[in-house]
Design goal:
Chain A is an all-alpha fold and 427 residues long. In chain A, 57% of the residues lie in helices and 1% in strands. Chain A has helices at 2-24, 46-54, 59-62, 69-88, 99-104, 115-133, 135-139, 147-155, 158-170, 183-193, 199-234, 267-277, 297-302, 307-319, 327-337, 352-355, 359-363, 378-391, 398-414, 416-421; one strand spanning 252-254. The radius of gyration of chain A is 35 Å and the shape is elongated. The longest helix of chain B has 29 residues, at 2-30. The chains are: A mainly alpha (427), B mainly alpha (667). At the A-B interface, α11, β1, α12, α14 and α15 of A face β1, α3, α7, α13 and α15 of B. Chain A: It is found in: Mitochondrion. Chain A: Its main location: mitochondrion. Chain A: Belongs to the mitochondrion-specific ribosomal protein mS31 family.
């Protein structure tokens, strides 16, 4: 135990060391993976670096103060597991994990044995972050924060936080993801919610929105699969006993080069022409209409079909025999009714309004965060998570994604003054 | 080798500039990048020809093209039942009645399901399909808007609730709200189309009283025939349509059009014409549909042939004056009216057709049907001149038609009637080959029209064609396309008789039984008489006898069928020829049971069979039976029996009694 404790201390020291290093680094370091020389410090990510950057000013005053007994034990515990994980997890050394992943890891704690402790830890984390980011104001003595959290804040350093996040990273594999919502998201939401005074309500609101989106996604995803199943079940294999010369002439709907297909009719047509020449009807006609008045043809086509037209077409369809003669004709009928997938198979059928939307619109959604969201802070982080999730969701249209983001924009906008009061809405 | 190359090179050199410029233009217009490689290739390809390159553009295929190509590879299987019955072999129709029943029940099942879905939309809210399939979702059939507004009126119009729409319109007027012109026009259309009656909803249970059965019933075949009299719902004086129309502050031509079309559709012909004069007085112009309706109403509005034709030409001239472009239906209704113009028709029908062609309007099958009807009156038989139909079919050969006029479906059956009347087999084949082009078979019409067509075709074949060919057609169209009626089977029997293929009769009898015609007494009698008329080879006689026994069992099974003397004796003869003495004896007993008297020839036959098989006992019984029937030839029979059989004394005494007895009576 003593050894562990001492190790932890060493680790913490190392971390603070690295924090110092980070301080030296220019502000825009990203995606840089650095080797660390600590006992449990095999894995560290740029996110940690970023975290550290953000807390640069906070850290110097706090590092090394991790002497509080309560937190000490917890840290020890964490460190213990971290070590275990690191033994087997050397592969994780060089990870380019994005910020949201780091932030979301805390939730994984739930699945482990030391649940209650870690849960509280998570809460602590949430609370702490607020304080970390609002540190400048804290100096000016913002009394709204509880004393307790202040203590906890002080008890933990930025290094400490990165340790925790690392621990959780190591735990990713172990966690079962069977929650209705991804625990990552839950945790992130609660973290974001904790920035607000009415914490539980805000959290539930955020979660509700997320859950709605999730059910929508699920529905759209499932719809795809079910539909396909039904479709395949409906298919019939028709028999094709031989070939036919008949080539349906109206298959080509239009021919851009204007050359239709002309079939030669053979000798019979010649005979027919011979016959045609001696038409028994006199060539006299009524001479009432003049043959060249083409200008009126357009407006009848443009006009909306009246009830009479519908009745007439219905009558026509009744007088003819519409029964399909074989499975293919049945399928043609279904295609016309819209019940069947169109041939040749096109996976993107029904997504015509998405066809013109390029891929980058779907994936690079961060530009939508430029307006109406703070440049930094927990809200920004939360939104980055949301955007990252959306960018991987193939079941929503771009429009739906935008709506999703704008819902959050409105939401945070409404809560702006509360957030400002809490000094977390950095704009 | 070198010489042509040099020649080519020279050619390129000379024409190079021209080609390059040309290709440059061409490719620039297609948006291609001009690369040197392409330049070379292009030059090589076209070094021989100066013609410009025409690069075919992308063809866009319809979504059904693949399926159509596949469907064209599937031929009709003459041994299979129609496709719609293949799901359930138990429900494969064997007779035309079953065909009708099964297809109607299939259809009505669909209609019932649709009705249920539409009336209970709350149970069918799940939409699994991606992309969305509108036709699987319930349609709204119930009214949702309750308040008095134009929106509610529009809803009632789209749902075709005639009385509710009229009510809503009245409420709107009372409330002082003005209804837009368009909505009013639609309302008038609705009322006039359904003649102020609510149409029967699709698939609705038939609880509505008979009066409500309006136009919509026609679409459903189960009620098709019986609804024919409902269809003629007559236009009532001052009905809602007229009332609303009269209340309108300003009337445009579409309102007039709706009313005139409604009046013509529902039989108020003279009213329609007076409304048309009203329209002209208001200096409005009618549309083409109005003219079509009026032209089709002409024969009912005028009595004399001359007057009818004058009115038609007047209407057509007015169309021309009002710059209304006639369409196919205009000319079809002119021709239809001409059918009722007697002697004038033969002059003007060809002229109308020429007018159509001059205007570039392609005639439909209905056009040809009207012309045929003009030239081939069904009453006037005799040596008809088939030139016209011959010409027509030559002209139509290989053309694929689509239905453009409801009357199109009558063409094939009436043309086949003409072929049958003129007994022109060539013409019949020509017509049938037209049916087989493309989708023309769809224009044969409903199952009734189709059976009429095939019935005539089959009769023509039976009448004119060699029996082998007839049988080929028989196996090809029966029963997959056509369930022949008793007359058709009778024709077939006669064809078999003419060509001396009576040995096929037992197989035909099986088909007759399958087709459910075994209860038609005259058909069965015809069959039996054909079988019994001549003697055939023993094998054939054997099969005939089996067939005769089968016929007997059919007779026994049905109380409704009465044995006639001739059929009884035919069966007995057939059995005797096959040496089935016991069964023949049973038949003789049946004579007695049915109070029929066998002929002398039959009894003599029987006796000779008894003799050849050596059963004197049966001979004695025969003579006794003959005596019981009081057949005058009994003594002769007894005498023959006495002379030719080896008899016991007892039998001799019985027979000699019969030999003597009638002589005493006669003395």
């Amino acid at each position: 135990m003593h050894r562990l404790l001492s190790r932890t201390v060493v680790a913490v020291r190392n971390r603070s060391l690295c924090v110092y290093e980070c301080c030296v680094l220019p502000a825009k370091i990203d995606n840089v993976s650095r080797p660390f020389t600590g006992v449990g410090a095999n894995t560290i990510s740029t996110c940690t670096v970023r975290r550290c950057e953000k807390k640069v000013d906070a850290i110097p005053s706090n590092q090394g103060e991790a002497t509080n007994v309560d937190t000490e034990t917890k840290t020890t515990q964490l460190q213990e597991e971290l070590l275990e994980a690191n033994d087997g997890g050397s592969t994780q050394q060089q990870r380019n994990v994005k910020a949201e992943q780091v932030l979301s890891k805390p939730s994984q704690v739930k699945t482990d044995g030391a649940k209650s402790g870690k849960k509280s830890l998570l809460d602590l984390l949430g609370a702490m972050k607020v304080e970390v980011t609002s540190k400048r104001k804290l100096k000016n003595l913002k009394t709204k924060q509880s004393f307790e959290s202040a203590v906890q804040y002080k008890s933990k350093s930025g290094a400490m936080e990165s340790t925790i996040s690392m621990f959780q990273k190591a735990n990713v594999q172990a966690s079962a993801q069977s929650e209705v919502l991804d625990p990552d998201l839950v945790a992130a939401a609660s973290a974001a919610a904790s920035t607000l005074p009415n914490r539980s309500r805000a959290e539930s609101e955020l979660l509700k929105q997320l859950r709605q989106r999730k059910t929508l996604t699920e529905a759209q995803k499932k719809g795809d699969i079910n539909n396909l199943g039904v479709l395949i079940a409906d298919m019939k294999v028709g028999k094709t006993p031989g070939r036919q010369n008949a080539w349906p002439a109206d298959q080509i709907r239009f021919d851009d080069d204007g050359q239709g297909y002309t079939r030669d009719r053979g000798i019979t047509s010649e005979l027919a022409n011979v016959r045609k020449r001696k038409n028994i009807f006199p060539t006299k006609r009524l001479n009432i209409f003049s043959p060249t008045t083409d200008e009126q043809r357009g407006d009848s086509a443009l006009a909306k079909p009246t009830l009479w037209d519908m009745d007439f077409s219905n009558e026509l369809s009744l007088t003819t025999n519409q029964m399909p003669r074989n499975g293919f004709e049945q399928m043609i009928q279904w295609t016309k009714e819209g019940k069947l997938w169109h041939y040749p198979i096109n996976n993107e059928i029904g997504l015509e309004n998405e066809a013109s939307v390029p891929f980058n619109e779907h994936v690079f959604l961060e530009k939508h965060l430029d307006e109406g969201f703070p440049r930094q802070g927990p809200v920004r982080h939360f939104m980055e998570l949301v955007v990252a999730g959306l960018s991987r969701n193939p079941y929503l249209t771009v429009q739906q994604k935008k709506e999703h983001i704008s819902w959050f924009r409105d939401y945070f906008h409404q809560k702006e003054e509360v957030l400002n009061e809490a000094d977390v809405y950095l704009n | 080798m070198a010489a042509p190359c040099r020649h080519v090179g020279h050619h390129i050199k000379r024409n190079g500039r021209f080609l390059r410029i040309h290709l440059d233009q061409l490719f620039a217009s297609r948006g291609f990048r001009w690369t040197s490689a392409l330049q070379q290739q292009g030059a090589e390809v076209h070094k021989e020809s100066k013609e410009p390159i025409v690069i075919p553009r992308k063809k866009s295929w319809s979504s059904e093209a693949v399926l159509e190509a596949l469907a064209s590879t599937v031929h009709r299987d003459p041994t299979a039942h129609p496709y719609q019955f293949q799901d359930d072999p138990y429900l494969s129709p064997r007779t035309s009645a079953e065909f009708k029943l099964f297809s109607l029940s299939q259809e009505s099942g669909r209609a019932a399901a649709k009705y249920f879905v539409n009336n209970n939309p709350k149970f069918f809210t799940k939409d699994f399909a991606e992309p969305h399939i509108p036709c699987l979702m319930p349609e709204s059939v119930a009214l949702r808007l309750e308040e008095v507004s134009e929106e509610a009126l529009k809803e009632r119009i789209t749902l075709r609730k005639v009385s509710a729409a009229v009510e809503m319109y009245d409420q709107l007027l009372q409330a002082g709200t003005s209804v837009s012109m368009e909505t009013t026009q639609e309302l008038l259309d609705l009322i006039c189309l359904y003649c102020d009656k609510n149409p029967v909803q699709d698939g609705a249970p038939e609880v509505e009283d008979a009066e409500e059965a309006g136009e919509e019933t026609k679409r459903r075949k189960p009620k098709g025939r019986q609804a024919a009299h409902h269809l003629r719902t007559s236009w009532k004086e001052n009905n809602n349509a007229e009332r609303i129309f009269n209340l309108l502050p300003e009337k445009d031509s579409r309102c007039y059009s709706a009313l005139i079309r409604g009046m013509v559709k529902h039989g108020a012909y003279s009213k329609a014409f007076s409304l048309y004069t009203d329209l002209l007085n208001n200096r409005l112009s009618a549309d083409v549909h109005t003219f079509n309706a009026l032209i089709s109403a002409v024969p009912d509005a005028r009595d004399k042939f001359n007057e009818r034709w004058d009115l038609i030409t007047e209407l057509l001239n007015q169309m021309n004056e009002q710059k209304v472009r006639p369409n196919l239906l205009t000319f079809n209704s002119v021709l239809k009216a001409l059918r009722r113009c007697g002697f004038l028709a033969k002059t003007y029908a060809p002229q109308t057709l020429n007018e159509m062609k001059a205007l570039g309007i392609a005639p439909s099958l209905a056009t040809y049907d009207h012309i045929l009807a003009v030239f081939y009156k069904s009453g006037s038989s005799g040596p008809n001149n088939t030139d016209i139909i011959q010409d027509m079919l030559t002209e139509l050969e290989g053309t694929s038609f689509t239905c453009q006029d409801p009357h199109d479906a009558f063409f094939f059956s009436s043309a086949m009637r003409i072929c049958l009347d003129s007994k022109d087999l060539e013409l019949g084949y020509k017509l049938h080959s037209l049916v087989e082009v493309g989708d023309n078979w769809r224009l044969l019409g409903d199952s009734y029209q189709q059976s009429v067509y095939y019935g005539r075709f089959f009769s023509l074949l039976c009448m004119m064609e060699h029996i082998d060919v007839v049988l080929k057609w028989y196996s090809r169209i029966i029963p997959s396309l056509y369930y022949p009626n008793p007359q058709g089977m009778m024709d077939l029997l006669q064809a078999l008789d003419t060509d001396g293929r009576l040995d096929l009769l037992p197989t035909i009898w099986k088909d007759i039984k399958t087709l459910g015609h075994d209860n038609k007494v005259d058909l069965v009698e015809e069959l039996l008489s054909l079988m019994a008329r001549e003697e055939h080879s023993p094998e054939v006689q054997e099969s005939f006898a089996a067939c005769a026994l089968d016929v007997k069992s059919v007779f026994d099974g049905r109380s409704s069928m009465e044995w006639s003397t001739s059929s009884l004796s035919h069966v007995t003869t057939l059995l005797l020829r096959a040496n089935k003495l016991q069964q023949a004896w049973d038949m003789l007993l049946l004579f007695k049971a049915k109070n029929r008297v066998p002929s002398e020839v039959l009894l003599n036959n029987f006796l000779s069979v008894c003799q050849s098989s050596g059963t004197p006992k049966r001979a004695v019984e025969l003579v006794q039976l003959a005596a019981a029937f009081c057949v005058p030839a009994t003594p002769v029979l007894a005498k023959t029996a006495l002379a030719e059989f080896q008899l016991t004394d007892e039998q001799r005494s019985i027979l000699s009694e019969f030999e003597a007895a009638p002589e005493k009576e006669t003395e």
